């Protein structure tokens, strides 16, 4: 299954970016562009999101294998890549590193832990808000925004969600994500698959938003058991979408981490 990708910068990609639930690869474009002069990137739409194909089931191991196949098609043989993943994309990135360690040069995990995250933002409400939106009443994006507002009062979150609304001619408006699959898979998405074993021995940058509750000190032992070379950095003033709340701080922290990899790898 070929996933939709977009390249940032020139040359062989050094960083692959995996978005969160109801996101798209382009959500991480600002971060990717900020480091692209030294580390070109590739933005990936995960399965059932953006312009990538839909599937009939969800599983982090399956998604990790799909991403691995896409990366092997993009990269020269034997060349590894740093993988940046946010939230659901962070869990996919962790699964990728554990299942395909020789493909992953280093790992950046943004505001998620290898644990249950169902306590978080309330994605069931967001997914169901999109599923129940009456698209037959939508003529413009402004209509969709107004209809979604009672369920999602935050205009910034609505704007993020409505990036998933696509006008297809002659069919009319449709959602890019496979909302029915995502809705019934939410317990798996918020969980962590028990069958994934470590450790992954590459370097890991673990970012958390200072105003987010997704990553706490209680998660550190589980993270270090799977990823012993983890370094935890808190991004002050950032919530769960830390790359949107504090893009400069996230980009600077990522660039500093990437810079440490070059002498180590002779690049």
UniProtKB/TrEMBL annotation:
<dbReference type="GO" id="GO:0016787">
    <property type="term" value="F:hydrolase activity"/>
</dbReference>
<dbReference type="Pfam" id="PF00561">
    <property type="entry name" value="Abhydrolase_1"/>
</dbReference>
<dbReference type="InterPro" id="IPR000073">
    <property type="entry name" value="AB_hydrolase_1"/>
</dbReference>
<dbReference type="InterPro" id="IPR029058">
    <property type="entry name" value="AB_hydrolase_fold"/>
</dbReference>
<protein>
    <submittedName>
        <fullName>Alpha/beta hydrolase</fullName>
    </submittedName>
</protein>
<keyword id="KW-0378">Hydrolase</keyword>
<feature type="domain" description="AB hydrolase-1">
    <location>
        <begin position="15"/>
        <end position="246"/>
    </location>
</feature>
